[in-house]
């Protein structure tokens, strides 16, 4: 089958989507349920409807756009990703899977085929943990991994509850109605930039993702009496930032000591209150991200970090709270879909390799309700979550063609 991908149209749409941003270009920032996110969603729905897709928006704001197949009674295939963007990030993370998914559908439409199964394009709400500290909200609720009541009471940094925020943003209905029935989808395939350097280094066009690393996050809070930076003598201090600083070093050491380069640990949030140069900190909060493709090894690292977090607080004599935000298992791709991706690469005369995903994705949670796999494309210098993030039109074109061919194979 001959497929003609209009990558220029997709690139123009990626550029347009990047303009929905709360920071100056080339950086992008689109946080869930902000006016900017809502405006971007409006743009996406226009595009989906113009392609003849039937759009449904569920109570958490997932956008599900359906291209009816020849036999609508069959469970549909799904593809898609996210369009929220973390602070000061780039324009390809997630968006390539949504707008590339749209282009894959339009490519099949243009080729004049009518797949047997329907194909649904999903834009998942809040894959990023930016606002509610919890990533993959949309796919966790779709899969039933996150209970609706637990989701409703998540709060943002201003203390606003998710349930109120989403309703004020116009997403009504019961969160309990988001969950999919078993067998709803026949498969889910997500196109995404690699967010690492391996494909580019190997000079390969496509990564067929066989597994997704297990992500975890925890929050540690130390509080102390604070005081005047001049008046309180060193011997009299209990500065919670000292415990926090020791913990930051410990996270780095624990990840390095795991015995595998696949373990990674990051302190991405370190908040100091009241943040005044002449005031001893009174409240220090860290959010710590730990991942590994080996779940039990990740958990051993987490245990060490939690133990040491308590020890540092105790040694300093400051109140300490340790709260797990999430600790999810790894996911494995379905071998049949991986084989379909590999056949698509061969048909499209594109080079590829099998690989694991070190970032997490909505596929991690979709794997709980249907077979999944992912298609990776290279990004320049492996950069992501930075304004410099870049994938070339040729790389994106290759990803779209492989996605289109894979969906077509699976839909027949
Ligand atoms: C999602 O962007 C992640 O942190 O992997
Ligand atoms: Mn991301
Ligand atoms: Mn992403
Ligand atoms: Mn991600």
TrEMBL record:
So where does Zn(2+) 2 get bound? 93, 128, 385
- Where Zn(2+) 1 binds, per the record, is at 82, 93, 192
Please name the GO terms that the record assigns under molecular function: hydrolase activity, acting on carbon-nitrogen (but not peptide) bonds, in linear amidines; metal ion binding
Alphabetical list of SUPFAM superfamilies matching this protein: Bacterial exopeptidase dimerisation domain, Zn-dependent exopeptidases
Keyword set for this entry? Hydrolase, Manganese, Metal-binding, Zinc
Q: Tell me the cofactors it needs.
A: Zn(2+); Mn(2+)
Matching Pfam families = Peptidase_M20
Tagged with keyword Metal-binding: yes
EC number(s) recorded for this UniProt protein? 3.-.-.-
| Top EC category | hydrolase
Show the InterPro entries listed in the entry: Amidase_Cbmase, Bact_exopeptidase_dim_dom, Peptidase_M20
State the free-text cofactor note: Binds 2 Zn(2+) ions per subunit.
What does the subunit comment say? Homodimer.
What NCBIfam families does the record tag this protein with? hydantase
Q: Which family does it belong to?
A: Belongs to the peptidase M20 family.
The name of this protein is: Putative hydrolase
* Organism whose genome encodes this protein: Lacipirellula limnantheis
